[in-house]
Amino acid sequence: MIEVPKEKKLNIGTFYLTGEVNIWWDTVEDKWKETELTWSKFLEELRAQFYPSTIQRREEKEFMELTITVI
Question: Is the torsion defined by CA of 29, 31, 36, 39 positive or negative?
Fold first, then answer.
């Protein structure tokens, strides 16, 4: 694992985007150039777009309801 300086995370992270996420980033990147986009804000926007809170809650609920069977 490589440690990336905080100020470089956004540039490096967005460089490696592929597929649908890259298409999304290409459409919103200009909007964010007008503001100070941080890595945290980027992740928040990315999760909102591709991992909505309704799905997060459903996944969390399913996880909490998991049972482990030992044979």
Answer: negative
CB of 45 within 8 A of CB of 28? yes
Contacts of 13 (CB under 8 A, 6+ apart): 39, 42
Whether the model pTM is above 0.70: no
pLDDT digits (tens, 9 = 90+) for 4-43: 888 898 888 889 999 999 999 998 888 887 788 888 989 9
Place of tokens 């998991």: 66
> Within a 10 A sphere around the Cβ of 44, how many other Cβ atoms?
11
Question: Could you tell me how many residues make up the chain?
Answer: 71
> Residue 33 carries which side chain, given as an amino acid letter?
K
CA angle 2, 52, 67 (to 5 degrees): 80
DSSP 9: H
